[in-house]
Amino acid sequence: MAYVLKTLNSWFWWESLWIPANCTWADLEDHDGIVFPKPYQLYATIPYAFVMLMVRFVIERYIAIPLAKALGIKNVTRVKPQPNAVLENYFRKCTKHPSQSEIQGLAKKCNWTVRLVEKWFRRRRNLELPTMLRKFQEACWRFSFYLTSSIAGFIFLYDPLLSSQYWYYMVEISFYWSLLFTLGTDIKRKDFMAHVVHHLAAIVLMACSWCGNYVRIGTLVMIVHDTADFWLESAKMFNYARWEKTCNVLFVIFSIVFFITRIILFPFWILPGTLYLPSYYSSTIVIAYFIFNGQLLILQGLHLYWGYFVLKILNKFLFLKVFRTPTPAWAKTDGKKDLKDDRSDEEEEDSLTDNEECMKNGSKNGSKNGCGLSRHQLLNNNH
Fold first, then answer.
1. Single pTM value for the model
2. Among 36, 84, 112, 173, whose CB has the most other CB atoms within 10 angstroms?
């Protein structure tokens, strides 16, 4: 077993895989007061990730919640639907959005009215959606990290000392590890798999660039990504607080920064430095060249994917609000947000309570209402 592990280790650190033919790993060992990155230092990112989770808990609990209250965001308790085994089974195994014919069939099967079945599914769907406070807490945590990492990134970019680069790398990798650890509990959106690919690609890229001493290019890639993200998270925070104008301004700023950094600088400045410039310094192309650039091209593909969502929201904002003609009073909406995240599901509103609905149907069905309950039983029903 020891021989197998030793062989795999030698294959993994094969010099022809990582560095050009005119270099060896011995060249990257500390000498003459020059210190180089060491692969074993990456083991520290796992415990650091748990430290990051504790920092997140403190920020969400003791900073985000008081800030949310100050901005008028309340922790609204969702109304739970009436317990119903038939509808619950259908919701879990069949569909969360039944058609009208399916609703009519379920209503007959449960001896309920169609309106009650529709309300049950609406409330059941709402029960799985995160509250505004939960969304605000997550956005506040990400905003805090991205803002701090952006400032630190620019400082460390001009600091050639390895100690500052070390902490920048460790914190960034630990953050993405923590995001992977909480994927199951964080708010899920339509681009869930894109986030999984992004986090894995980011960790692999940062870890490999640290091992291969590509620290300078790695720092540039991280800065390019972080500088746009805190603008987006701040726009989300004010969106959840219903500060519409502030949210709109911040989102426009985010869009400008996003397209400059990820659609212009990244593919036309950073990628040429990794795709073309290596050929000027070495006549041999190592396998790591294809691994690194493959990951960077995956990131660029994700930039284009998310840029599509940004353009959709900007299209709604600019062409349906800024450049539209004045809307007549009779045609005005009920004040819904202009900048809606197309990746997120919207909470559906209730009209009547279950009691009001059943009482309404009870007047049509005599002493029994649409739920099959007597009026006396209905008055004692907490739902």
1. 0.76
2. 112
